[in-house]
Amino acid sequence: MKLQLTGWLLREWYEKPHPNPFLASLERLFRQVVKARLWTYRNGLKQIRRFPVPVVVVGNLTVGGTGKTPLVIWLARFLKENGFKPGIVSRGYGVSTGPRPLRVSKESDAHTVGDEPLLVARRTGCPVFVFAKRVEAARALLENADCDIILSDDGLQHYALGRDLEIAVVDGARRFGNGCCLPAGPLREPVERLNSVDLRVYSGEAPPGEYAMVLEGDMAVNLQDESVRVPLKSFSGTVFCAIAGIGNPQRFFKHLLRFGLEFESREFPDHYRYRADDFEFVGGRAVLMTEKDAVKCRALATSNFWYVPVEARLPMEFGATLLTLLKAKRNGPKTT
């Protein structure tokens, strides 16, 4: 049911020339709520919590996947290479951490801490904390880990967390759909919000003057034995299964198609909790999935389960600009 509703909304947002009239009437109310909420922070009715280290928020305007997590991984590695000690906070979508923030380790259960935080912890080796209130996650991070900069995976609209730098990630293919806010369109905030962020990164094709992020990955890794890696091209000539439970599953399927592969695809809702019977359609065929799906499927995996890790690639100018902005922001945090 959720997948059917999601599919209907995506068609309304990205394929129809005009917004659904009923949803458009609700959009006006949503915009008013967004405006009122921002006003409460700007005028001190709600508190913005500042921290003694720089806070970089990586977020987006649209619901669904745009490539935030690969960018957070890239940022963490880049900052480490440039002498920083980054720590990462996240909401941990769809999980209940209890009354206090949880630290994520490489051995954590994805259903306890969230699939994206676990993926980030495994790929970066940085301290990662999850909690519904990112302010509390950031406080726990500073109290329990040695870090001198905080990355927030998502949270562009979580204004309680004071930030020194905002990076917005945009889907270079789908952009902003029909340009409407929820529920008439995919936007969490009006598109004009992009004018106030520090850096804009487009996943895929970028307009002139913006930064393009390309996701690359030409290998498949076996879930049962991660020391076994094979080129994606080795699956050529076989018909296998490809699954994706991410914000934009078509991005993964198009990635596989670029290698000339043929497969049966299955889409699942973002952050889906997989069960053994979800793979009954596979038979004896190989299964290829995203790394985000893989962190939830290890207990279900057989020897024919593979995932495709991707690496973000950004222009050198992006890293140089980021370091320049961080140096300047040390003298004054960003306000809402």
Could you explain how this protein is built, in words?
With 336 residues, this protein is α/β, with parallel strands linked by helices. Among the domains are: 41-84 and 148-214 and 313-329, 3-Layer(aba) Sandwich (Rossmann fold), CATH 3.40.50; 218-309. It has helices spanning 2-14, 21-42, 68-81, 110-113, 115-124, 134-144, 249-257, 291-297, 316-329, and strands spanning 55-59, 86-90, 102-104, 128-130, 149-153, 165-171, 199-203, 211-216, 219-222, 229-231, 239-244, 262-267, 287-290, 305-308, 311-313. The strands form two sheets. A nine-stranded mixed beta sheet has the order 3-4-2-5-1-6-7-8-15, with helices on both faces. Helix 3 runs parallel beside helix 5 and helix 5 (115-124) packs across helix 8 (291-297). The longest helix has 22 residues, at 21-42. 38% of the residues are buried.
Topology:
Layout: H1 2-14, H2 21-42, E1 55-59, H3 68-81, E2 86-90, E3 102-104, H4 110-113, H5 115-124, E4 128-130, H6 134-144, E5 149-153, E6 165-171, E7 199-203, E8 211-216, E9 219-222, E10 229-231, E11 239-244, H7 249-257, E12 262-267, E13 287-290, H8 291-297, E14 305-308, E15 311-313, H9 316-329
Parallel strand pairs: 1-5, 1-6, 2-4, 2-5, 6-7, 7-8, 11-12, 11-13, 13-14
Antiparallel strand pairs: 3-4, 8-15, 9-10, 9-14
Helix pairs in contact: 3-5, 5-8
